[in-house]
Amino acid sequence: MANENIEAVPQPRSNASLGLVSGTLAFVSWGLVPLYWKLLQTVPALEILCHRLIWSLAFSAVLLAIQRRWEEVWVAFRSARQLALAAASGAAICFNWFIFIWAVNSGHIVETSLGYFMIPLVNVLLGAALFGERLRRMQWIAVALAAVGVLSLTLGYGAFPWIGIVLCGSFALYGVLRKVSRADSLPGLFLESAAVAPFALGYIAYLAIAGVSSFSPTFPAQSLLLAGGGVVTALPLLWFAHAARTIPLSTLGLIQYLSPTLTFLIGTLLYDEPFTRAHLFTFVCIWLGLALFTADARWQAAKRLRMPK
């Protein structure tokens, strides 16, 4: 999943329709991605992550060449600040990806969906704490409901939902770093991947020399899936970027819940992961909080439209 801050401007109906399709494709892809990582369940999470980084770098480089956008990358390379932010955001998203892949292949898909449901609410808190954004009453109630849900799961289930919390926190941090850097999705992905690529290449080389690499002619289907991780990573980002430029952010905010909803359904219905009463109460609290949050956002947007110019 991604959290860009791109203002949508009015578009012709055909562009808006295409933007809605693009946004839906992006969030559906992110929601279904656990199915892809499950195909690589026998491969260690760290090795999957390294291949995901390397092939994302390669795929994004090809797309940058096709779209003739290398100038955006060169400009960023000449800025020490941009490079530092790319390295920081690359580290944050790598950590997020690693935990997500490990959790999916360790039978914790439901907990990953919990984390991504919480992200919009945590972003509100970070906006207030870091950027001086004032929270409205309804937003405070939404955040409080989510906090009650997490606390209830911790006390009632007997275990702190650390996977969801870590995924939420690391992705929210990534969103803050991307907001500060203001890099577009594709150049940003390339820069982030390039910043951490040496470590990924080093680990992949080590595995190859040790003779324990999962990327080998001996395992052609598995190797193809590892390489395909680059496409699985970059393509939804492009769909998301197009959607963010062509449809209202309120619409984008609504369809983003497709992703954790699909992930939640995959965990409970396809892989029979446990879903206790404590889980149910937590998810109800978070869904109520999201409903209030979304309703408040739409009411505020409608209020601004009614205001005289």
Tell me what the structure shows.
This protein has 309 residues and is mainly alpha-helical. The chain has one domain. Helices cover 81% and strands 0% of the residues. The chain contains twelve helices and no strands. The protein has helices spanning 13-38, 45-67, 70-77, 80-105, 109-131, 137-157, 162-181, 185-210, 220-246, 249-255, 258-270, 277-306. Helix 1 runs parallel beside helix 11 (258-270) and helix 6 (137-157) runs antiparallel to helix 12. The longest helix has 30 residues, at 277-306. It starts with 12 loop residues before the first helix and ends with a helix. Residues 2-12 have low confidence and may be disordered.
Average pLDDT level: 84
Question: Which structural class fits the helix and strand makeup?
Answer: mainly alpha
Largest sheet features: none
Number of domains: 1
Give the termini distance in whole angstroms.
36 Å
Query: Helix tally?
Result: 12
Query: How large is the share of residues in beta strands?
Result: under 5%
Rg over alpha carbons:
20 Å
Count of DSSP strands? 0
H/E topology pattern: HHHHHHHHHHHH
- Shape summary: globular
